[in-house]
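Posting here for the record, re: IPT.
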Amino acid sequence: MRSYEDLNLIQMNREPQRAYYIPYDTLEKALEGNKEKSAYYKLLNGEWKFAYFERDIDVPQVIAKWDKINVPSNWQMYGYDVPYYTNINYPYPVDPPYVPDDNPCGVYSLDFDLDNKWIDRDAYIVFEGVNSCLYLYVNDILVGHSQGSHLQSEFNISKYVKEGTNNLTVKVLKWCAGSYLEDQDFFRLSGIFRDVYLLSRDKNCVKDIEIHADSKILTVSEKDYAIYDGLNKIEKLDNPILWNSEKPYLYTVIVKSFTEYIPFKVGFREVSVSERGELLINGVSVKLKGVNRHDTHPVLGHYAPYEYMKAELLKMKELNINCIRTSHYPPAPEFFNLCDEIGFYVVEETDIETHGFGTRNTGCGYDIESSDWICKQKQWENAFVERAERMVERDKNHSCIIMWSMGNESGYGSNHDAMIAWTKNRDKSRLVHYEGASLIEDKCDVDVVSRMYTSIDKIEEHATNADMRPFFLCEYSHAMGNGPGDAWDYWQTIYKYPKLIGGCVWEWADHTVLEDGVYKYGGDFREITHDGNFCCDGMVFADRSFKAGSLEVKAVYQYIKTDLQGNELSVTNLYDFTNLSEYKLIWKVQCDGQIIKGGELICDIEPHKTKKYLLDFILPKSCKLGCYLDISLMGEYEAAMEQHRLPVEIKENTCTFITSAEFIEENNSIKITGENFTYLFNKHYGNFSSLIIDGEERLAAMPKLSVWRAPTDNDRNIKYRWGLFEDNMRGENFNRIFSKVYSCELKENKIIVNGSLAGISRSPFLRFSITYEVLSYGEIKLKLQGSVKDSSVYLPRLGFEFFMPKANEEFKYYGMGPVENYIDMYHHTKVGIYESTTAKEYVPYIVPQEHGNHTKAKLVEIGGLKFTAEKEFDFNISRYSSETLTNAMHADELIESDNIIVRIDYKNSGIGSNSCGPELLEKYRLMEKDIKFEFSIAPMNKI
Ligand code: IPT
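Prediction output follows.
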């Protein structure tokens, strides 16, 4: 057994874990809190010498040739070795604690100077994160080693350093016993990936400092301390302003220890649970509107610089997120300073995941009765417990942390009981959860019952059972690709039951590797076993830009709810600690897309309260498309929005003298003429082959009736029942359809087509009859009647695809916009008149897929044609065909079609989150068997 596989040697000479802090040499600097200014802090980040060896056994005594590398970084991001993406499977055999004999090793070296001031004091070195383990040498002497990639390792190097130039050499191994505890779902990346710094400490310095601040009382483990409010020293703090995620008020506590001033930002807050199982923050029932966050950067790998984390947190704030689960390990310690300051409730998870034991014998599951799971093995107990301990001890002073998580997906065993017991004994001020407790029906000492991806029905069962512990969805609404589509429905249920305290969307950002301008994922690096694009499952893109799913979550998490009865608007304040008067509520009445009246309200509404307001507007007698009341809650930016349909009669434009166009049947086609148009109808295929209006051809190809959409990531299961992929027995083969015309007749100036659609090798799934009428000014009235075969799976979508010449990039519509939306993912959009282009409609999902749909449309104008319908329809306009989007695996493989594809759809099925979550709710499936769809196509400017 090698030392890095020896569970009795998981560390050597590492300092006991203490609270994270930086000591300062003056009070002023400590109050300012800029650690770079502290004379006792020396950041070692920067360019280091580096040598990479594919096998640690090849590392020579003296390294003759050095490269350079940036610290912090992951060496795979610099071309040494390759990134390796695997989710559940370990990237090596499951034979703990043994790891491959060929164990890659990166050797880092840095010279640094210390003056006599440093030598007179003690010197410590802190590594905030090194994957997977490190051996530290100072001036060629082994100081110590440590495992635990996402945990802090601190060494006292006083004995080893001298005045003048010193050398630091760090050997980092790719694998060690600890790797068995780090089977998280991410790219496996190695190296010194977080800050490294030296601390100059007073020889008598305090080691650990513990601070508690509940809603009244502050306790500090050291005697010599002072409290400041900003820069003002407070002699006696009787009624502190409390901290919460909405108003994260912080005081500064400065501990004085000999020559050191040690600052902590402290928020007063109390976490408790009500008898009804509510989560109480300062006694107020709070719902956790959460997201799971990994440390991930498309270029820097697992290194998340301070400013980058800050920018991420501000974006989360903008999306109404109030809670973060640090999946599945502790982030860099400064993350919590940011969360204290910006205001988040944090569920901090320790650095443990052993998911791959589930696949050690083929298949995947939890045979937790088996003693193979290391959570049951005594020799691993210390390795488990110390990871809880190192997390809790490092971060215990942060107000933002309200719950500790004992790790992710690691089975359940006595080592978990030991961790839970240790944590609860150590910290009684916070809650403990571990989702793996579900394997024993939560019959252990967790304070919060948690589940992942549970269906809405099931969470309702939990909400009403006898267990009065809060129920938390540590993962839900899998946001992979186009999605998530089910967040809204979850929250209708979560709001209903006190015990449902909320949950965390899986997950914050796509973790892809950006290489040569292309976002890459599993398999792109020739990994032997990988999980494809399962790392691209963020609610924001890898560059943290928003997609429809981000905005949908924002709308679901928003802090107002409004209702309209006549002119009376009732507004409910869903904030927990904020009076709504801090925002402006703007209302607008829009009729056919035009604003006809509006106003602003300052709503003085206390948290969780409702008030009614009479809005001053008079509705018109009728309109052409629709009338809506738009609500917007404005702060620094729009924090919330809603739309209410207004009861105004919709009167279509009716032409008094409707006369039919002229129809001339010629062999296999029908020529239709009228005012400035000539249409040709192909009887063989039952559709138009030409639409010439004002001398210009408007079609680039014959329209077709179709049902396919490029499967989204959330369609990844249903797609095998929809389409023909590897398995040629399972699907209705909607991606390989044949359109059959049984008859096409011209009768009383109406063309009637009877036909069917069938997937290859299958009986027709749709039998239809389409009637086309054409009026003298060119309007085509299309009526589809269809019946779907009983045994058919629900349809992806159903509608007509029109192919228009490429010049028609720009269009206008009346419908839900401006961002793409679906029947279950539209709360971020409003009905209105919008202008767009095909470029704007494109959404760069990492794996190309269905996108760009708009629901509740009544009008689309493009290429001289106007599509209208009495009933709302879905539409989509794209430069890419569904086939192209289906086949491409990366965005750069997409080839633009020669035409613009305009989809006018009866309906498009919802999005859901079945990439990992439950199946799409039935109400969002296109599963009706009798279909009636009517719309018109008319020359623009003619009606
Ligand atoms: C769940 C994991 O906890 C999470 O890390 C991620 O892998 C997610 O799945 C999928 O993206 S575990 C799943 C098997 C329920």
